[in-house]
Amino acid sequence: LLPGLAALLWHRRSGGSALFKSVAVHGVAVVAILFSGVIVPGYSVLELLTLKQHDFIGMATAVHSGSFVQLTPLEPNLWSFLRGMPHALYMTFLSPFTAFSNGALGMFAALENLPLVLLPIIALRYRRKWSGMDRASMLFALSFILFLAVLIGLTVPVIGALVRYRIPLLPFLSLATLLIIDARRLPRWLPFTSPA
Q1: Nearest CA among 129, 143, 127, 136 for reference residue 186
Q2: Lowest mean pLDDT among 33-47, 48-62, 181-195
Q3: Tens digit of each residue's pLDDT (9 = 90 or more) over 91-108
Q4: Which residue pairs, CB below 8 angstroms and at least 24 apart, start in 8-16?
């Protein structure tokens, strides 16, 4: 949350390119994460996340979790995390669909996931012009969504737990959708569509 918020506040105070400020702040944040063990000895973020994932996998295996998904074990280096990011996004946004057949809870998790996937698609289909968007706020929302989605997807191998851990994403996903979508372009049969 902090890098996106810092970029948003920087843009609000000084104007200029929201995209440049967002990239710059997130670049500094990534460097700080990579060198966290040097900045604060004994506190390497990559090592802590690797340990967290291994512990979670061990616990889920020990209790024979019904919605366990085998993750590629992380190593405390940049390449291991970059390699795992695509699957992490799959885990956070799409893996609940695979739990549909795991009883009532799995079915509800899959149905709950449907609007999570459809809303961004609808927003992009009926998006407003780039020049008309609040780009700084949109980048802030997307920053939080992507950071948390990757963090959860890399470390949580149980779909039931993953669905609970990603709840903080939902307000930011709704915010990003509202910032992107142009209500005037939505189909007229929708009751909340604004008149042209």
Answers
A1: 127
A2: 181-195
A3: 999 888 887 667 777 788
A4: 8/136, 8/137, 8/139, 8/140, 11/136, 12/136
